[in-house]
Amino acid sequence: MSIFDLTIAVAARALAAKQISSVELVTAYNGAVAALNPRLNAFITTTPDLALAQAKAADARIAAGEATPLTGIPLAMKDLFCTAGVRTTAASKILEPFIPPYESTVSGKLKTAGAVMLGKANLDEFAMGSSNITSGYGPVENPWKRTGSDARLVPGGSSGGSAAAVAARMALGATGTDTGGSIRQPAAFTGLAGIKPTYGRCSRYGIIAFASSLDQAGPMARNVEDCALLLNAMAGFDERDSTSAQRAVPDFTTALNRGVKGLRIGIPAEYRLEGTNPEILALWDKGLAWLRAAGAEIVDISLPHTQYGLPVYYIVAPAEASSNLARYDGVRFGARVDGVDLIDMYERTRAAGFGAEVKRRIMIGTYVLSHGYYDAYYLKAQKVRNLILRDFTEAFAKVDAILTPTAPSAAFGLGEKMDDPVTMYLNDVFTVPASLAGVPAMSVPAGLSSEGLPLGLQVIGRHFDEETVFAVSAALEKAAGFTALPELRAK
């Protein structure tokens, strides 16, 4: 077995048994990053020297018998997490010279657990996108290829760099953030497992904000077990984050072998959308059959306000982005373009620093918050958001989890769908409702398209019931037996 075939769980056992050292592991992954990143552009900033220093410290910790399951494990950090002393960009030129003096809570928890940071992963600018083409540092390429084609594909977004890095064997796992599907959709596009935990489960402190009522950190990895190990370390209450939930963090790995016998799995009729790839719907039916065979009961449910998910999201999220991104003005930190006066400097800085998609969302958000439109758009969207939450609450009175597709298609080509923002926004149609409701949801790789590209199924659970999400996801993973690998990867 190649060192690049190890999962986090297997690598942790090998490290504990002294069969391999963290320095050996990290040296191999540093080499993979150096070899593949010029092609895939998965990392904006690489930190090979820091990674080796952390690996040496991890080996010392293992030798002293003080290791955690993540000690010495090389990870990619989405470049939305502030990392003390390491450049943080949010994939935007407006933050070009920013080196944070502090650490985000999530990256700090992983550092405390002994994990090693290989670098900062690329993303859509300020996490605004579903394809990783809006990055100020260039698009990320998906390591997967269509059968018989060398066309470059998108890895999904916004956490596309994290997804590409893990799929291409440039990292054992990665952090992501999910505002409307930005962990789950790229996980589906790249054949990975990825979970958006309940809103409030992971601290948002030190994560550069996009939409504060939606943003949530979560892990991406090669399998469900590795995601559970990562979330164990990432989750927990943080008094520095007013939206952080004061809840005990269970050991999520204990749910992996629970099985689904006796569980009621809901199937929402509203997710059978017209225009969805028939292969996605066929895979969904197959997933239901797998869960039924494992002892689950399949229950038809209705989430009647699903159709309003995307319109609500694209009012609420841009409105919050407009407010959050007002701080980038060239005065206190980040890039500055001088002007003839203060207002001119603001305008020149923001015009030069923000990309087209970020400007589009700021303008939408400013419009819906403006006098005369706040009640018509933003306030109404928040009321419908409550109805979407009520749909889930009523559904979970009848079922233990919900199964849906993750995305309406497999990965598409760089250059496809690029001219129509609305078509691009439709990529989030299956993931946005769970984000609006704040419930946990996980994507699991479950099959391949006719073109040889990975497809994912999404498991949605009750608030703070990630354990059932992991149990159902593990059962799906076992039944699917997904072992396919991308063409572009370290070997």
Describe the protein's architecture and organization:
By secondary structure, the protein is of the alpha/beta class. It has a domain at 3-257 and 469-480: Amidase signature (AS) enzymes. The protein contains 15 helices and eleven strands. The chain has an eleven-stranded mixed sheet, sandwiched between helices. Helix 4 links the parallel strand 2 (74-78) and strand 3 (116-121). The relative contact order is 0.14.
Mass-distribution shape: globular
Q: Write out the CATH superfamily name of the domain at 3-257 and 469-480.
A: Amidase signature (AS) domain
CATH class of the domain at 3-257 and 469-480: Alpha Beta
Number of helices: 15
- Rg from alpha-carbon coordinates: 21 Å
Number of strands: 11
Helical content band: 25-40%
Which runs of at least 5 residues are low in confidence (pLDDT < 50)? none
Strand sequence of the main sheet, in spatial order? 1-3-2-4-6-5-10-11-9-7-8
Q: Summarize the main sheet.
A: 11 strands, mixed
Give the overall pLDDT as a whole number: 96
Topology (elements, then pairings):
Blueprint (H helix, E strand, L loop, with lengths): L7 H9 L5 H19 L2 E4 L1 H16 L10 E5 L26 H8 L3 E6 L38 H8 L5 E6 L5 H7 L2 E4 L19 E6 L2 H11 L29 E5 L9 H16 L3 E5 L7 H16 L17 H12 L2 H14 L4 H22 L5 E5 L15 H5 L6 H6 L3 E8 L5 E8 L4 H15 L11
